[in-house]
Amino acid sequence: MNRQGLLLGFFSTGAQVLLLRELGSSLNGSEIFIGTALFGWLIAIAAGAYLGGRANVNAKSPALFGIGVLLLPMLIIAIRLSPLFVTNVVGEIIPFSTAAIISIAVTLPVGLLSGWLFTAILKSYRADAGSIMRLYFVEGIGAGVAGIVITLLVGAVLSTLAMGVAIAVIVLVGIIVAPGSWRPARDIPIVAMALAAIVVAAVLAPRADRAIDGIKYESYNVVSSFDTPYSHQAILTRDSTVVLVTDNT
Fold first, then answer.
1. What total of structural domains would you count in the chain?
2. 233 φ, ψ to 5°?
3. Ramachandran angles phi, psi of 225, nearest 5°
4. Structural domain of residue 212, as residue ranges?
5. pLDDT digits (tens, 9 = 90+) for 28-40
C-alpha cells in the first residue's frame, strides 16, 4: 500500500499541476480556468472513487496507472492544440464558454483514474479506517514530492511535456520494480532504461514543442518553443516579422 499510495500522490498531483500549467498557458494565462479545471477534477475524482468502490468493478491498480501515464502526455499536447478548435489566429482570445469546457474536459480522464486508483488500492488491502488514513498519508507524501520535483525542474531543466513523460516513466518503474523484491539482474536494466528515457525526453522536448507549435501556428515559422517556470513561449517569424508569443498571446 505504501508504494502504490506514494505513486498515486506523485502521479495525481504531478498530472494536475502539469495540466493546470498548460491550461493557463494555452488559454491565455487566465487563472479563472484553474477554478473550472479543478471543478472538473473533483467531479472526476468522485466519479472514479464511486466506480472503483462498486462490487462488480475490479480493475487492478497497475492497469489504471498504465492507462494514466499513457494519457498524461497526450492530454498535455491536446491542451496545447486546443485553441485550434476555435481559431488559428495568433493571440485571439478564446471565448470563456469554450475555454471552460476545454478546461473541464481535459482534467476528467486523469481525475477519474486518480479517484478510481484510490479505491482500487484500498480494495487490494483492508478497507478499514486505519488503512484509509495510511493511504491518505502516503499519498500526501507523494504529492509533496511531485510538487517539489516540478518546481525544481519544469522551465529550468524540462519542458512541461518532457516532465509529463518523466512522470510517466517514474510511475511505470515504480509499478514494475518493487523494493521488497529487488533483483539487480532484472531491475537495474529497467532503472537504467528509465533514466535514459527521461534524458531522451529532455533532449527531444524542444523539437517536439516546435512541432506542436508548428501545427498551432501554421502560418508562421516556429524558430523556438520553450517553457519558463511561469509560462510557455514561442518565437515565430513570417517574412521579416518576428513575434514573441507568451501564453498564446
1. 1
2. -130, 150
3. -145, 125
4. 1-245
5. 766 777 888 999 9
User: How is the beta sheet containing 241-246 ordered, strand by strand?
Assistant: 221-227, 232-238, 241-246
Read off the C-alpha cell for 146. 511531485
Comparing C-alpha atoms, which of 7, 132, 125 is closest to residue 65? 7
178: domain CATH number is 1.20.1250
Mean pLDDT of 67-90: 90
DSSP of 217-240, one letter per residue?
TTTSEEEEEEE-SS-EEEEEEETT
**How many helices and strands, by DSSP H and E, does the chain display?**
7, 3
Cell of 192: 537504467
Among all chains, which residue has been given the C-alpha cell 513575434? 243
Is residue 152 over pLDDT 80? yes
Strand partners, 237: 221, 242
Instruction: Give the angle subtended at the CA of 198 by the CAs of 193 and 203, to the nearest 5°.
Output: 120
What whole-number distance in Å separates Cα of residue 229 and Cα of residue 176? 31
Q: Which phi and psi (to 5°) does residue 157 adopt?
A: -120, -45
How much is the pTM?
0.90
